[in-house]
Specification:
346 residues; mainly beta; Tachylectin-2, Chain A; five-stranded antiparallel sheet; hydrolase; Glyco_hydro_beta-prop_sf
C-alpha cells in the first residue's frame, strides 16, 4: 500500500489560533487553517465520499506514527477507511499501489447482512502479544434494520484485518442491536465499551427516538480477557439517555483515565439535525456511577462547529479525534485535551 497526500488548499488545517476551538478560515495564501490552544489541529475530509471520515478512532504505534480509522462512507465500497500521520498534524488517506482507497477490513463475516453493508465506528487497540484488534459495527444478516459489533485481528496496525469467527461479538437484536465499540485498559484489565442501539426501535422523531416513550440506549462496559475478545466478567451499564433532553440518544462512548478519575466521553442527541454533542461524564470507578459534566465539551454553535461528536481518545488520555459536519459530510478533526480534576478542556 502507499499513502496519498491531499492537496494544498483543500483539506488540512495547520495554523494556530487561541483556545477555544475556531472553525477553519482560509488564510491569505489559500491554505485552510485551524488550531486548538497552542496545539495544531487538522481536519481530514475524504471529499470523494459522502460521509467523509465519521466516527474516527486513533492509535499510535511504537515508531511514533499515528493511525486513524473511520466509518464507511455512503457510495463507497470501502468498509473501513484508514489515514496516517507522522506528526499528528498532517494526515493522509491510505491508498493502494494503484491509487485506489485502501480498505482496512476488506472481508465481512457470515453474520453481516448481504449486499452493501453499512460498517460504522471502528476502534483499533493493540493487545499484549503485539497484534491488533479492530472492533466495528455492521448490518446484521438476521435483521437488516439493525447493527451488531464484531471483532477482527491483524498482525500490523493497518491490517488488513480478518474477522474473528462467524458470529458477532455483541448482538442484542431484541434491544435494537449494538454499535460504537471502543477498547479500554485499566491496570491490566481490558474492557470494551459500546452502545446498545435502542433508538433503532424508537417511536419516531430525530434518530427515531425523540418521541416518548423513549427507548433505552445504554452505554455498556464489558470486561474482556487479554485477547481483547473473550468475555471475562459481568457487563455494567454506565450511562443511558435522559429522554427528551438527549433526543433519546447517547452513543459513541470512549473511556480514558486521568489519575484516579475515569472520563467517559460520549455523544448525545441526533447526529443529523444539528443537535449532536461531544460530552463527557466523570467517575472514581470504572464501573461508575458516572456524573455528567454541566455542559457538553462541544456542541453545535460553539465556534461555528455543527454536530461535533463521535470522539475517540488515545490511551495517553490526551490525543483526541472527533468528527463534525463539513461540506455535506462529516470531517475528522484532531485535538489535544487536558483533564484537571473533574474538568476536561482543550
Amino acid at each position: 500500500m502507499m499513502l496519498f497526500s491531499l492537496g494544498l488548499g483543500s483539506l488540512f488545517l495547520t495554523t494556530c489560533f487561541s483556545s477555544p476551538i475556531s472553525q477553519p478560515k482560509l488564510s491569505f495564501d489559500g491554505i485552510p487553517t485551524l488550531s486548538l490552544a497552542d496545539a495544531p489541529v487538522s481536519r481530514l475530509d475524504n471529499s470523494n465520499a459522502k460521509n467523509s471520515l465519521a466516527d474516527p478512532s486513533v492509535i499510535q504505534t511504537d515508531d511514533g506514527h499515528w493511525y486513524a480509522f473511520a466509518t464507511r462512507s455512503i457510495g463507497s465500497a470501502i468498509h473501513i477507511q484508514a489515514a496516517q500521520s507522522s506528526d499528528y498534524e498532517t494526515w493522509e488517506l491510505v491508498v493502494n499501489a494503484d491509487g485506489s482507497q485502501y480498505d482496512a477490513l476488506p472481508s465481512m463475516p457470515a453474520w453481516v447482512g448481504g449486499g452493501p453493508s453499512s460498517t460504522w465506528a471502528p476502534d483499533v487497540v493493540q493487545v499484549a502479544d503485539g497484534s491488533y484488534i479492530m472492533y466495528y459495527s455492521a448490518t446484521a444478516a438476521a435483521s437488516l434494520t439493525h447493527h451488531c459489533i464484531g471483532a477482527a485481528t491483524a498482525s500490523s496496525v493497518l491490517g488488513p484485518y480478518t474477522p474473528v469467527g462467524s458470529e458477532a461479538m455483541f448482538c442484542p437484536l431484541d434491544q435494537g442491536g449494538a454499535i460504537d465499540a471502543s477498547g479500554f485498559i485499566d491496570d491490566g484489565q481490558r474492557y470494551v465499551v459500546y452502545k446498545v442501539d435502542g433508538n433503532s426501535m424508537g417511536h419516531g422523531g430525530a434518530c427515531r427516538n425523540a418521541v416518548a416513550p423513549f427507548v433505552s440506549t445504554p452505554i455498556v462496559l464489558q470486561p474482556v480477557a487479554a485477547d481483547g475478545v473473550t468475555f471475562n466478567g459481568a457487563a455494567t451499564t454506565l450511562l443511558d439517555n435522559a429522554g427528551a433532553s438527549d433526543q433519546g440518544v447517547v452513543e459513541a462512548p470512549a473511556l480514558t483515565k486521568s489519575g484516579s478519575t475515569y472520563v467517559l466521553f460520549f455523544s448525545s442527541n441526533c447526529f443529523s439535525d444539528g443537535h449532536y454533542t461531544l460530552s463527557y461524564a466523570i467517575s472514581t470507578s470504572v464501573t461508575g456511577p458516572y456524573t455528567r459534566a454541566a455542559k457538553p465539551l462541544l456542541q453545535s454553535g460553539d465556534n461555528e462547529f455543527t454536530s461535533p461528536g463521535g470522539a475517540d481518545v488515545h490511551v495517553d488520555g490526551q490525543h483526541m479525534v472527533f468528527h463534525a459536519a463539513y461540506n455535506g459530510g462529516r470531517a475528522m478533526y484532531q485535538a489535544v485535551i487536558s483533564v484537571v480534576g473533574d474538568f476536561v478542556s482543550f
